[in-house]
Design a protein that fits this description.
This protein is an alpha+beta fold. Among the domains are: 110 residues, Tumour Suppressor Smad4 (Sandwich), CATH 2.60.200.20; 121 residues, no CATH class; 85 residues, no CATH class. It is 23% helix and 17% strand. It is built from 13 helices and 20 strands. Strands 2-1-12-11-10-7-8 form a seven-stranded mixed beta sheet, with no helix packed on it. A hairpin with a 2-residue loop joins strand 10 and strand 11. The longest helix has 26 residues. It is elongated.
Amino acid sequence: MRILIRTLEIGTTGVAVARDRVVDADVIGFGRATDQHIHCNDQRIGLQQAKFTRADAGLLLSCIPPAQAEVNGRLCRDASLHVGDEVSLGPMLIKVLEAPADFDAAISVEHDSREATVADDAPLPVFATSLEQVGWRKRPWAWAGVTVTLLLGLILPWFFVGRSDASIAWLRASALPSDMQWTSGALHSAHGNLEVKCEGCHVQPFRRVRNEQCLDCHSSTLHQHVAADHPAAADMTKERCTTCHVEHDEPSNLVQLDTRICTDCHTEPQNHGAGPKIMPATDFAAQHPDFQVSLLTAPDWKVTRARLGESPIIEKSNLEFTHAAHLDPRGIKAPQGEVVMKCADCHSPNESGTSFTPINMEQHCSSCHTLGFDPAEPQRELPHGEPALVMQTLVDHYSRRFLGGYSDAFSPAEGVTPPGASLSAAARARALGTAKQRANQVAADIFERRVCADCHMVTREGTSAEPVWQVAPVKLTQTFMPKARFDHAAHATGEATCETCHAAATSKVASDVLMPQIKVCRDCHGGEKGTEDGRTRIASPCASCHVYHDQQESLWAPVVQKVIRQAAARQ
């Protein structure tokens, strides 16, 4: 990132003098340390207070916890900055300027006029820091403090605990300390069996819970957090379970959903072993890469990854199909008459509601695309499958007809055998030859014009007397976004329809990938807080769509559903 830093200093004449310098760095640091690009010699400022990185639409400010910044008059820890924004960091005021040509960004740095006029390097005022300095003795106050603590924190609650439940309830409802000061909070319902067994987790008093205690119960039910070949696998094994799974909280969630748990690594993924193509992600609304989809590609059906929005994406499934024709509001012609189709006619949710059952010909297509081939026997249908099996079915059918003496409009009159008549070997051979010719004629119509060619890519080989048809196999992508979780049932509202996210009604080729881009989701979903640019949207932390445990972990699914329900309830 090439950035212009303009420092405004007050000269001896009282006039502000601008000094420009150019910095080429991916991260612009602000702090008291001498290696920071923007240095501030103020004791209130940390060695590294904040950093600026490049974002799609400008700069991204990230304060190092617990530090915060004032952006346009609003306190925040992270913010996306644009031209005209003002950032107050301690005694410094940083403004985002219009970047000149050949620069990615430009900022000005000046002393905040709202700060005190005392110089940054001036000595700090001296305050009294001990009781002796204000003329008080320590021992009487210490004894008084111990006495009051014992009386209110131990003796008074102990007295009421030994009495009736009504007394305990009264004490807890009053402003006086109660036995609730003795506990750090209730356990989550999942750990309800440990309510009176503190030693189950706290093996040593006043020592934090170790991973070994968690794995005593969960080693058989929890999978690896990340795959063994993941770049961050070594670091993950050093993390403590209680970093994300916190007990004794009110309200108890057991799983920390703070986005910062994820962004600690994903803000700068390359620093944690990620490849060069992995893009940073800090917040769904402020900084999140466009979605990537997984596609099955013929003929070897390998999974390829492609990012939506970069270039047109084609799904090579060998299917000849058009959504627009099937979703024609005027209806489509079917054996039962004009039919107006809907998405749900073919796309049926699975039991979990997160995905759909696979499309198959017999269940979803056969009501309109019948496989009948002989008007004389409309109940007979061809099998949907191998072309060789189709040909065998046709030959068997017409051989039975001609040998049985049935008439056929396409066979010569002299080739018809009266019912019940015995056939000579020559006549039998002629009948079977006619049946084979008729089967080839019907097969050509079925494969190339009327039935198979409607949906499949068909090629013809062999000779005119012995034709052979090949139908390209079809394999559809079942999960376009395997790295995310999406609940269709939660989105089935009166304001959201299938067309809201999937442009199926205008899709005229089967190769279209109808997955929505990230801008479609951002119409309703915001970042972790849910409020950006003065607009209230659904708060969507990372856990709304992404899982942390292995995909096989069943315990994680209810947590994701709970996140979605809580976000919807807050709207």
